[in-house]
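hey
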């Protein structure tokens, strides 16, 4: 399948006029494909890419998707995520892979079931509060008349009655998961952060953090975090920014050059050279040398630049809001109240 055909399929489904978005989606997909091809990851449905080109791989995914309708939806979602670099591209890639395009002849894909169901509630002007009242989260059902109306719309869109029933249950489960709110534990909070690690590897987005205290207010977007256990029962969460290891390493080498350590030398020789000059160095120069040595011996590409540290022992409570109902987003607000009364609000 040619890229123009991919664009046409996504355009028919998404109904977005600006051509640039389709070019961006395909470019990011191809970038993800390049990384997958170099890795040993088994891709859902198609297993290995082998010698296939990007276009051949998309063709095979669409074919396998159409021929494996009973495959668990979560597996198909995982497949889509392998080719998504930005959250807002998820719906476009999903539309392409689920389009049932098995040849060069184009067939208009079905409209995404989530859009059909949400479209119904939006048309009926049913807000979030009333929507949740209409759903039975325990039995995964909704008000009988509304369920009948939605099922009809899904069938009219090309889904079977069995698929319609399945997608209604999936939608209710989706809303249930997005409606969880209230006080959560530190462990719950950390687990939700860990779920973001794969996204951070490819995404241009970060976590918005707002700090509230009597003296100050600030807002920063962090794009990396570390979780460290430093004593039994105590842990530390550090938010910071990605900083290129190569650039920092170069600065460290320049510092060591100033003190007679030239090039890539063994640690023993490096320490021997520094030791001879140590007593002559000022406290400031000693700090610079220690920092330089630490930089070139670490394996991480992250250094602290505009960071924030949170320890579990400093927290009084953590509360979580419900999440939005946009499939590829699901943003929540997390409010951390410290024992001293100050607060930090995070959105991710």
């Amino acid at each position: 399948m040619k890229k123009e055909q991919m664009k046409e399929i996504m355009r028919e489904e998404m109904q977005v006029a600006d051509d640039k978005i389709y070019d961006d989606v395909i470019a990011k997909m191809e970038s993800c494909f390049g990384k997958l091809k170099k890795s040993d990851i088994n891709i859902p449905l198609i297993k290995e890419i082998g010698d296939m080109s990007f276009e051949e791989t998309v063709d095979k995914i669409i074919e396998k998707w159409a021929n494996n309708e009973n495959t668990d939806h979560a597996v198909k979602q995982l497949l889509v995520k392998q080719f998504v670099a930005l959250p807002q591209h998820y719906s476009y890639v999903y539309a392409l892979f689920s389009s049932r395009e098995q040849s060069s002849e184009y067939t208009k894909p079905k409209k995404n079931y989530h859009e059909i169901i949400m479209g119904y509630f939006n048309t009926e002007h049913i807000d979030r509060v009333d929507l949740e009242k209409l759903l039975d989260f325990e039995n995964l059902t909704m008000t009988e008349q509304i369920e009948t109306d939605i099922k009809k719309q899904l069938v009219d869109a090309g889904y079977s009655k069995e698929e319609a029933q399945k997608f209604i249950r999936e939608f209710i489960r989706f809303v249930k998961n997005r409606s969880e709110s209230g006080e959560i534990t530190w462990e719950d909070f950390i687990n939700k952060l860990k779920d973001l690690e794969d996204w951070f590897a490819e995404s241009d987005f970060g976590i918005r953090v707002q700090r509230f205290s009597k003296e100050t207010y600030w807002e920063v977007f962090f794009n990396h975090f570390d979780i460290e256990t430093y004593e039994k029962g105590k842990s530390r969460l550090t938010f910071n920014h990605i900083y290129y290891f190569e650039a920092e390493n170069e600065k460290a080498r320049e510092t060591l050059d100033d003190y007679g350590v030239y090039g890539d030398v063994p640690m023993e020789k490096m320490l021997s050279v520094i030791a001879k000059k140590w007593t002559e160095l000022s406290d400031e120069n000693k700090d610079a040398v220690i920092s330089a040595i630490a930089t070139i011996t670490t394996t991480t590409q992250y250094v602290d630049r505009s960071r924030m540290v949170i320890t579990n022992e400093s927290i009084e409570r953590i509360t979580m809001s419900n999440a939005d109902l946009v499939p590829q987003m699901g943003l929540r607000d997390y409010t951390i109240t410290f024992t001293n009364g100050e607060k930090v609000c995070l959105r991710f």
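The first helix runs from residue 3 to 14. The chain has 14 helices and eleven strands.
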